[in-house]
Write a structure and sequence with these properties.
The complex is a heterodimer of chains A (393) and B (255).
Chain A (H helix, E strand, L loop, with lengths): L14 E2 L2 E5 L5 H15 L2 H13 L7 E3 L1 H7 L2 E6 L9 H14 L4 E6 L3 H13 L2 E7 H6 L1 H9 L3 E5 L6 H15 L3 E3 L10 H9 L1 H12 L7 E5 L4 H7 L8 E7 L4 H4 L1 E5 L1 E6 L24 H9 L2 E6 L1 H15 L5 H13 L9 E6 L7 H11 L1
Chain B lengths: L2 H11 L4 E7 L7 H9 L5 E4 L10 H12 L4 H8 L8 E4 L2 H7 L1 H10 L2 E5 L9 H9 L3 E3 L1 E2 L5 H10 L4 E4 L14 H9 L6 E4 L5 H10 L2 E4 L1 H8 L4 H15 L1
Parallel strand pairs in B: 1-2, 1-9, 2-3, 3-4, 4-5, 6-7, 7-8, 8-9
Helix pairs in contact in B: 2-12, 3-11, 5-6, 6-7, 10-12
The chains are: A alpha/beta (393), B alpha/beta (255).
Chain lengths: 393, 255
């Protein structure tokens, strides 16, 4: 394979194969075009990228370590490593993208940021970066998610953000995106829409992947230092797919097998078909007349009926493989990682852990070197997990 | 030239401003009676909203109506069946989001519109750059693909849009989703910029909620599109004759 065969830039329309593109109202087209130009210029500007890396280092705690999970490795008969995005500021990989986009917001001369959030991780990260950079911040969050993640709502408010509960549709992440897009139409002149995943209209899927690719590039170098030239398998959970895209980007042009793990109730690759939503053509869960179906997952961050268009493309060409994990399998995996390694993962991340536990000896041959992207920590979920474990007891 | 554009150009030549009311298909079991009523009250064309689960360009009123219609099982096939009972002779224009046609199959969807008597289509989340497949399917079935120009659209894009749009060019009066309106909007300025590039009829819509706003818009444009205020009345339980009266007031305001 050539050096940049996979996960290079999309074409000028933002297409990854037949996926991606820019399906937005005309009112938003100029903003998308402006953003694309601004991103391309900034990303090629060493001053900007140095600033981005400096803020990630000084403020967000990068580089995050790679931890060999020795006890679990011994139990499973594989060599398992975790890229510790749970140790990044605000508790997940979301901060990487947000630092990049808020710096870009300032560079474009805009004073305000809006964002959508599911679990609240992206919302908290956005509120954090806005507080640090002195930007005004409004976060749209499905009403159901504001209830499931009430503490994250409070965190965002502590950080000075306004949280708007979204009461339309299924009142979860997809509706929060709809509402943020509607709002963006009205304020596009002075406001940047800080989309939280590798989805939406071009350039978001590409830009967010680039801003998350630091995960994969760091991990590749760190594994190398640990004597692992190339892992056999790289595993990440996938909702929209930003942590997966970030870690995949470091290994797309190696022999590593790339695996994305979806929630069974939000499985766009497993159960979806091509469609157009939120500005992109991708794989979506939809009914026979093209109405978008409501995703359901115990993890609010995977509660999304679509997937980023580059993932749809990677699945289509067979460069990455996607599997689904049910709610029931997740809690057990969270307990195993907590008890054996002293790391409580986010419910989202626990899907990737569950897939590894389930597939050792099957999809993962014994002795394999496996990199898990430990995308977030479980602090936000402990109340929910306690309720579920009580229910089981 | 599509039949719709020919019709709308002749309408303009006759000196008449076009009134285009919008209704959500399937919002009530007898929604067709609203179409009949609007035609009777002097509508020159009628927009039929095909409900979508995630209407990104619509405000709360049309969102609510779409949800009601979807809960009642409305889909492209049921709309087509309902329209076969329509007696009024008025051009019909579909308005929906691209996934509805994309999922149905663009060729099959355009054929379905044609066989349902629909001669135009507005797909607000399908910009010029992504539309080739849909525009070709529409051309095969004499369905005019109607494009929007927004206040934020730069001049070079306006020229590209007006050379591609068919039937009329939709001048979005404000940077907002449907239904919101606190002022007269920028429709007049958008129409001016459209006219600098093309002689296609230019209709103003988005946030036109009162007959006096419609009057002002009709002074600037060749026609006006009125949606949310009528849909709100339908949601509030208005009868067909009440809708007819409302449309008649808009008619009087622009004549």
């Amino acid at each position: 394979m050539t050096e940049n065969e996979f996960m290079s830039a999309p074409n000028e329309l933002g297409h990854f194969g037949s996926f991606g593109g820019r399906f937005v109202p005309e009112a938003l087209m100029p903003a998308c075009l402006e953003l694309e130009t601004a991103f391309v210029e900034a990303w090629a500007d060493p001053t900007f990228t140095a600033q981005y890396q400096r803020v990630l280092r000084e403020f967000a705690g990068r580089p995050t370590p790679v931890t060999p999970l020795r006890r679990l490795s011994a139990q499973l008969g594989i060599e398992l490593y975790a890229k510790r995005e749970d140790l990044a500021h605000t508790g997940s990989h979301k901060i990487n993208n947000v630092i990049g986009q808020t710096l870009l917001t300032k560079r474009m001369g805009k004073r305000r940021v809006i964002a959508e959030t599911g679990a609240g991780q992206h919302g908290v990260a956005t509120a954090t970066a806005c507080a640090q950079m002195g930007l005004e911040c409004t976060v749209y969050m499905g009403e159901i998610d504001t209830e499931r993640q009430a503490l994250n709502v409070f965190r965002m408010e502590l950080l000075g953000a306004t949280v708007v509960p979204v009461t339309s549709g299924s009142r979860t992440l997809k509706d929060a995106v709809n509402e943020a897009m509607r709002e963006w139409v009205t304020c596009v002149e002075d406001t940047h829409y800080c989309l939280g995943s590798v989805m939406g209209p071009h350039p978001f899927p590409w830009m967010v992947r680039e801003m998350q690719s630091i995960i994969g590039h760091e991990a590749a170098a760190q594994l190398n230092d640990l004597g692992v030239t190339t892992p056999d398998v790289v595993v990440a959970c996938v909702g929209g797919g930003s942590n997966a895209a970030g870690v995949f980007a470091g290994f797309a042009n190696t022999t590593a097998r790339l695996v994305g793990v979806e929630a069974a109730g939000g499985s766009a690759v497993g159960k979806g078909s091509p469609g157009v939503l939120h500005g992109m053509r991708s794989l979506l869960m939809q009914d026979e007349f093209g109405q978008i179906e409501e995703a359901y997952s115990i993890s609010a961050g995977l509660d999304y009926p679509g997937i980023g268009p580059e993932h749809a493309y990677l699945a289509d060409i067979g460069r990455a493989h996607y599997f689904a994990i049910s709610d029931e399998e997740v809690i057990g995996a969270l307990e195993v990682l907590s008890l054996t390694e002293g790391i409580i993962p986010a419910l989202e991340t626990a899907h990737a852990v569950a897939w590894i536990l389930k597939e050792v000896g099957r999809e993962i041959p014994l002795g394999s070197k496996v990199l898990l992207n430990l995308s977030g920590r479980g602090d936000k979920d402990v109340a929910q997990v306690r309720e579920m474990l009580r229910g089981q007891g | 030239m599509t039949s719709l554009e020919k019709y709308l150009r002749e309408l303009r030549s006759s000196g008449r401003k076009a009134l285009v009311p919008y209704f959500v298909a399937g919002v009530t079991p007898d929604w067709i009676t609203y179409i009949e009523a609007a035609a009777h009250a002097g509508a020159d064309a009628i927009e039929i909203g095909i409900p979508f689960s995630d209407p990104m360009m619509d405000g709360v009123v049309i969102q609510e109506a779409a949800l009601r219609a979807l809960d009642a099982g409305t889909n492209l096939d049921s709309i087509s069946a309902d329209l076969s009972a329509l007696t009024a002779s008025v051009p019909l224009i579909a308005m929906t989001y691209y996934n509805i046609f994309h999922h149905y199959g663009v060729e099959r969807a355009a054929g379905k519109l044609q066989s349902s008597g629909i001669t135009g289509a507005i797909v607000p989340d399908l910009p010029l750059e992504e539309g080739a497949e849909w525009f070709a399917a529409c051309a095969t079935h004499d369905v005019a693909s109607i494009l929007l120009v927004a206040p934020s659209t730069p001049n070079d894009r306006v020229a590209r849009i007006t050379s591609a749009t068919q039937g009329f060019c939709y001048a979005s009066a404000r940077m907002a989703v449907t239904g919101r309106s606190s002022d007269g909007g920028e429709g007049g300025r958008v129409v001016e910029r459209i006219r600098q590039t093309s002689d296609i009829p230019a209709y103003i819509g988005i946030g036109i909620t009162s007959p006096s706003q419609a009057h002002d818009a009709s002074m600037a444009g060749d026609g006006v599109i009125v949606g949310s205020v009528l849909v709100q009345a339908v949601l509030d339980g208005a009868s067909a004759s009440e809708i007819e009266l409302m449309v008649r007031q808009f008619r009087l305001a622009i004549d």
